[in-house]
Amino acid sequence: MTRAYERLNDQLRVIEMIPNYIMHPEGSVLVSFGDTKVICSASIEERVPPFLRGQGKGWVTAEYAMLPRATGTRNVRESSKGKVTGRTMEIQRLIGRALRSVIDLDALGERTIWVDCDVIQADGGTRTASITGAFTAVALAFEQLIQDEKLTKNPMTDFLAAISVGVSSDGEVLLDLDYNEDSAADVDMNVVMTGSAELVEVQGTGEEATFSRKEMNRMLDVAEIGIARLIEVQRDVIGEFAETIGQQQVAAWSSAAGEGNEK
Amino acid sequence: MTRAYERLNDQLRVIEMIPNYIMHPEGSVLVSFGDTKVICSASIEERVPPFLRGQGKGWVTAEYAMLPRATGTRNVRESSKGKVTGRTMEIQRLIGRALRSVIDLDALGERTIWVDCDVIQADGGTRTASITGAFTAVALAFEQLIQDEKLTKNPMTDFLAAISVGVSSDGEVLLDLDYNEDSAADVDMNVVMTGSAELVEVQGTGEEATFSRKEMNRMLDVAEIGIARLIEVQRDVIGEFAETIGQQQVAAWSSAAGEGNEK
Amino acid sequence: MTRAYERLNDQLRVIEMIPNYIMHPEGSVLVSFGDTKVICSASIEERVPPFLRGQGKGWVTAEYAMLPRATGTRNVRESSKGKVTGRTMEIQRLIGRALRSVIDLDALGERTIWVDCDVIQADGGTRTASITGAFTAVALAFEQLIQDEKLTKNPMTDFLAAISVGVSSDGEVLLDLDYNEDSAADVDMNVVMTGSAELVEVQGTGEEATFSRKEMNRMLDVAEIGIARLIEVQRDVIGEFAETIGQQQVAAWSSAAGEGNEK
Amino acid sequence: MTRAYERLNDQLRVIEMIPNYIMHPEGSVLVSFGDTKVICSASIEERVPPFLRGQGKGWVTAEYAMLPRATGTRNVRESSKGKVTGRTMEIQRLIGRALRSVIDLDALGERTIWVDCDVIQADGGTRTASITGAFTAVALAFEQLIQDEKLTKNPMTDFLAAISVGVSSDGEVLLDLDYNEDSAADVDMNVVMTGSAELVEVQGTGEEATFSRKEMNRMLDVAEIGIARLIEVQRDVIGEFAETIGQQQVAAWSSAAGEGNEK
Amino acid sequence: MTRAYERLNDQLRVIEMIPNYIMHPEGSVLVSFGDTKVICSASIEERVPPFLRGQGKGWVTAEYAMLPRATGTRNVRESSKGKVTGRTMEIQRLIGRALRSVIDLDALGERTIWVDCDVIQADGGTRTASITGAFTAVALAFEQLIQDEKLTKNPMTDFLAAISVGVSSDGEVLLDLDYNEDSAADVDMNVVMTGSAELVEVQGTGEEATFSRKEMNRMLDVAEIGIARLIEVQRDVIGEFAETIGQQQVAAWSSAAGEGNEK
Amino acid sequence: MTRAYERLNDQLRVIEMIPNYIMHPEGSVLVSFGDTKVICSASIEERVPPFLRGQGKGWVTAEYAMLPRATGTRNVRESSKGKVTGRTMEIQRLIGRALRSVIDLDALGERTIWVDCDVIQADGGTRTASITGAFTAVALAFEQLIQDEKLTKNPMTDFLAAISVGVSSDGEVLLDLDYNEDSAADVDMNVVMTGSAELVEVQGTGEEATFSRKEMNRMLDVAEIGIARLIEVQRDVIGEFAETIGQQQVAAWSSAAGEGNEK
């Protein structure tokens, strides 16, 4: 089987990020993983949700949506349905959790970062593109906060990116699946990793089959290749400000206290 | 008072339309009125709502939304609120009604055109940009239907565009108000017109003042100038296919039967 | 074509207002435009919505509903549907905006006027009857507030009434359309005007056709006749208290600040 | 303690019913129990809910609402809240169940009677006024159906009315409590009875106290007096058609099959 | 007709209560009336709803639900439907009202008792089992509060239990109907009584027939027998702490002030 | 650090399953993982959702909920909130997906298995207990279907169980975390595996830290131990019928076609 655009199995699609794509947010980016295109924005609100008030620490939360015709057939708008689907909730919880793992919430101070990931065109991998773009948008927003002298240091402790890997029906391990590949794959795994190649989140699912420990390991190997390349692109877009990431010495990791009872 | 970018009072902002901006819809366009940017798409569904079934005629309906951070301060997502605001409903009803006034629903046949207008950046005039862009997206979708031999003739009976006009607090009549001008204006009017300079919809509101018949007439004069210019841009984008608009001989206008009881 | 009850084209239906129709509200009226009957009430709440708190000014807001069997076929109750339709939202936003245009919100002080318009029988023109009746109910409530020494002056700056006009399919301009006329009309326009014949709101729609500038002007001429007559009826019902309307010297018009971002 | 308007303890308030109060429904009445006023209407729909289809029998269902300012302080509209309160649901289930007890659903045939009870002014006893008025509205609708030759016989098996009784804090048993009496009462009981003095529904509640078997019996005695008087008023309003009630020989009572699982 | 398990007409099913059935609530019980099984829990919250704040008195409220497959055919989950049915609301209002009739809310102090009744298996009588079990769970919670020295006296003024009675189609009066008996009964009545045999709530409904005063009295006689037996079981489960019930001298009964406007 | 009840790091809590715990469902079990207790039931519906109709294959779907007081502090009921939380949706999607991986939907035929997992007491691991118990309940339901001669063969292709593993803050890998351990853990991973030790789902999250590939491998090793033990317990409960699991020769795995667009 040959992949579209003659990609190798462990090769990403064309990755692009246009910084400051829209004018109002403190940070924004249009991220493309091939034909998948997501507008990611980071907005600063100078207060935190009730469960964190008065603790001197910040919060990062994310929302995710698709334009109705981002996909091959039109989806009913979630605002018309009057509710958010389970899939959307899963994705936005994942994006927020992943970002919080590389942001020192104490260093952020009592403010909230609202991340919005709006998919304008979908061709597989919308959640991984969203995480990767969201990281960049948040970095641009932090740069702005430091320029405005509201922050003295970048609260980011490391880089962060996400990629999908899978096992095709003929047993090949593929990196960054497009929609057709994803629909045909036996196993689908999303991996979120830091710039230090530490794992943040691993979600592997046998959609039409189970998978072995060996296949799992091979998928993680390939994911590492992709993550490293994505972080290179982030570094380019962020420019000099990239040097400030990870400078923060973190004594204790920030804990997701607000979700305690529900965990 | 001078306008931003040294515009004259009866001059539009920079108008741009990028056709086929996203790949899945049958027709799409990214329309800009200055810094206001809207993705308009037209999707074809091969059936009609229940109230029209079996009558051999089509339907056109529209939905409108803004990205949460299309504006200066972030808006709560309507899908999170679980309901669509009154403002959104007003706008999407207006877009659908306006488009139906220049589409021969009998000629369209039993299919629905779903128009989606998603504002990615807002600076005043989002509803007029949406109508103007939506007309173009629908034209591109009709071109596709004819190429696919699903339609033999373009069901559009005329061009259609929309523009805002207003009276500033110092009494000047302004065309195509940006957000700052709109916020400061005493009177605000949205005008939808056809290529034959016939009125389709007039909605004038004294937000901070009442207005006289004379002011109303002056506003309509200026609106006509803007509409004519917008239709030139549409003509450019649509290209040769523009020649097919209005060819349709319409014996009886299509009636908005489905809204009967509620009108 | 002859109109029902041998009305002339520029003649209203029989207009009646029964003041204090229900006993609990500070002001109430049962308004009839022919067979269209609406209970309008004005309730005083001694506080304002959050966006206005501490500014020393008041607010006026309106809600509109129909009994399920106010119409020829029964409508599903909006409380059963769990949501308010777009049409209802449009109408209640219009009623509130229109009333605010003739009420000095600074003179009102930090209190809210809740206007409820409940249609008990519908035969066309429910929104114009609602605005015209609501103005009267609010005047009665203000009279009560002054008697209770909570206000010293009437905050109303002018009279206000609303009427529909239209163009029939045979080209005649008609005043105050009943349901049958409205269903058959090519063009439908609602006009809200003050006692000084200034325009407050103009909403014209070509439901089955477009319309020319000339037709628009003819409709406005006829609307003025109707508005003047409606204000005579209001004056009768309000009695002596009518003298206090417009006494208020208004330096600056009250601005609809609360809707800023959404306008 | 003297009652308002010098009523005796076992005396009703002034009872009035204006038949055909609104023009569209098949049957309607404005019922007053003193200052409590309810518009009751009965609408015919020529089909039944899914759980009854194809069984040749009909259905009767009821909805109840209050105008926001029917009461001393304004209530939030249930359509704005997006849901119906528990109190409203209790009342509308009670009205429907009571009416079904005196209507032969087999004789009705496959059609639904939609009963709407809209309280325009409330002063205690809105649910009993609703049931009593609803019975009358339904009778008028049946008269219409027989005139239209859609029915040959009146499906009503008996008269039906409802009244409240209570025990005051000084131990007196009162008939037809107004709002002040109801608020001060220790015990509150709603009784629905037929023209043959059979019980259909008894709902007694010790709001601020418990009550003895003896008090319960005294309350039922007084309720019987009130019910008999209410049925006289119904008989007057219905006129000659009253003779057709109860003619129907009923072999087997109609069962509330549709609520089976939930009973 | 013989009853299942050879019960006499005035005999209860096997009644069981397992105290402290789940570990987290301050009080809990698994109550069985034959095959009907309900988990009742009482949770203490150290604050009251807004309408009671600052008055020094407490509140008791209840929620009721069934597992989807507590019944013979699976019910759709109310959380999936996005709303609570009318039947559920009726039952939870009844449970709360009944409990408040034997709890001195002043003696309780500014705290709320949340009662949860979750039916895990249903065979008729779920509401009466819920009230009877809820009383026990609340008593256990009060015992805990006294042990924790948050209360000095038990605020319960009397015992409380509930039972269903009915009239079968062959005219026999039955106690504690199971699902089959309930489905076949002509009349169905739920009775809530105190340890002093005073009535708290009587809800009788002719589901397929009306009923006479004589039948009503016979049903109340039989209900008294059942209530007395249920209170014996409660006394056993509560143990020594039962002695503290009713010690409280109550000058004035606590009034359900918060529901004033809605009563 | 010592674990509660002196457990070893790679030891499960006490695991119990009471089969046929409630009487109405085709299959049910009360599963306990220590103090975590979940009622799992499997209900058969003899039809499939619309997206599968006419394809001759079945469907398995799951719902998950907690009693309000299953936890240390009371949670608001999702039916009262009117919506299901993101966490609940994630869990119920996971349960359904996991079960479908070991059920041959073609062999099941056109029927739906509704799985309900209701947590009555929570102490960590509610989702893994739910999956493990749900598998057992479904097996019991299939046994019933075969006894009723609606199925000839068990459609289960393998056993299935789930367990949590984590890394404590002092770096130890723990099996089957209770609530306190889970709250304190740095990394949390849920693993779903088959009887053949193949992976079905892996969800690892660094809640307060990232994790290395090495730690991930150690967690999977320990999970395998737990899964094997859980399947022993399932085998005991299911009895002889366990022999029928995996007999089914599966040519092609059943595909989750219904979620296509959303995947």
UniProtKB/TrEMBL annotation, chains A, B, C, D, E, F:
One function term, GO molecular function aspect: tRNA binding
Database matches in SUPFAM superfamilies: Ribonuclease PH domain 2-like (SSF55666), Ribosomal protein S5 domain 2-like (SSF54211)
Catalysed transformations (reactions): tRNA(n+1) + phosphate = tRNA(n) + a ribonucleoside 5'-diphosphate
Keyword hit for Transcription regulation: no
EC number of this enzyme: 2.7.7.56
One of the GO biological process terms: tRNA processing
Domain (Exoribonuclease phosphorolytic) ranges: 11-141, 159-224
Keywords: Nucleotidyltransferase, RNA-binding, rRNA processing, Transferase, tRNA processing, tRNA-binding
Keyword tRNA-binding attached: yes
Residues that bind phosphate: R87, G125, T126, R127
Cited function: Phosphorolytic 3'-5' exoribonuclease that plays an important role in tRNA 3'-end maturation. Removes nucleotide residues following the 3'-CCA terminus of tRNAs; can also add nucleotides to the ends of RNA molecules by using nucleoside diphosphates as substrates, but this may not be physiologically important. Probably plays a role in initiation of 16S rRNA degradation (leading to ribosome degradation) during starvation.
Family recorded in the similarity comment: Belongs to the RNase PH family.
SUBUNIT field: Homohexameric ring arranged as a trimer of dimers.
Protein name: Ribonuclease PH
Organism: Salisediminibacterium beveridgei
Organismal lineage: Bacteria, Bacillati, Bacillota, Bacilli, Bacillales
Gene name of this polypeptide: rph
